[in-house]
């Protein structure tokens, strides 16, 4: 699977794009096709069943549930208990800190730990397409490094990833392809390594 990033200023339409794909926001025109099948009018739970997981901006963990209860909610549509256990172990291997805090209430975790939990919960649906909205927002550099290491690992394992990230430099360095959005339209598109060297991108998003 590819790792594709969307970059752009606030209000460009990045988050709206993810919400439309996941069925949370209605679209006025166009079609959404996943694995060759149209999903434009499907409800969110049906899109999850098609293999799409959305990790939203702001994490949105269930603060009064434990870490493990949050993770199991990510697998709520699945009936394969052995597979769910396997994926739970996988999430704990990716994020050992979650294993240490598995009985702790999610609301008492740090921001970085909550972001790990949100990504782990999304992985519990065993997605073919993982959408991540601003995973580094407000986090310490060491935590960002750990989270992006996991994102790269998932990509190498074959998970297709659609990444919205305010740190354009970081996003472009790990992505295969990139789209630059401006007020809801694609302004630039191409291989991420090529866009890194684009003068317009460097001036607007890389502070160079």
TrEMBL record:
Keyword terms, alphabetized: Amino-acid transport, ATP-binding, Nucleotide-binding, Transport
High-level lineage: Bacteria, Bacillati, Chloroflexota, Caldilineae, Caldilineales
Superkingdom: Bacteria
Origin species: Caldilinea aerophila
Signal peptide: none
GO molecular function: ATP binding; ATP hydrolysis activity; branched-chain amino acid transmembrane transporter activity
Positions of the ABC transporter domain: 1-208
Protein's GO biological process: L-amino acid transport
Entry-linked PROSITE patterns: ABC_TRANSPORTER_1, ABC_TRANSPORTER_2
Recorded family membership: Belongs to the ABC transporter superfamily.
Protein name: ABC transporter ATP-binding protein
